[in-house]
Amino acid sequence: MKVKVAFICVHNSCRSQMAEALGKLFASEVFEAYSAGTELRPQINQDAVRIIKDLYNVDMNETQKSKLLEDIPTVDIVVTMGCNVVCPALPSKHREDWGLEDPTGKNDEEFIKTAKIIEEKVKDLARRIQNNEIF
């Protein structure tokens, strides 16, 4: 059975959504990617959607939506995105914080930088899971 990973932050509209998309794109053979937050947003951050589509040809509007913590299954690993406020908590066997700044409201360069960091971290997480470095 595949490990389940939840990428979480408060609004589940930008960084955690990007992480879910890139988790599905780059690590689906290693883990199931989910994202969620403590507050719903009517739509995913459209700058994030545009950047992920430009960089990776994945349309998050079609495949993802803002979800609450209780909307996702029980997970093995929780990754918080880097909350300046109180990060949401979910029960898990492993938890880590990626300390990412929220690019919301910033220019495309910030979104691209954030996407590339998430891509690297997703691939690294997949590698650590495969190498049994986490549990």
UniProtKB/TrEMBL annotation:
What Gene Ontology terms for biological process does this UniProt record contain? response to arsenic-containing substance
Provide the Phosphotyrosine protein phosphatase I domain boundaries.
Answer: 3-128
Q: Which domain of life is it from?
A: Bacteria
Its taxonomic path starts at:
Bacteria, Bacillati, Bacillota, Clostridia, Eubacteriales
| Species | Clostridium cellulovorans (strain ATCC 35296 / DSM 3052 / OCM 3 / 743B)
The identity of this protein, by name, is Protein-tyrosine phosphatase, low molecular weight
One Pfam family hit: LMWPc
* Keyword set, alphabetical order: Arsenical resistance
Q: Which SUPFAM superfamilies match?
A: Phosphotyrosine protein phosphatases I
Q: Which residues form the signal peptide?
A: none
Q: Which InterPro entries does the annotation name? A: Ptyr_pPase, Ptyr_pPase_sf
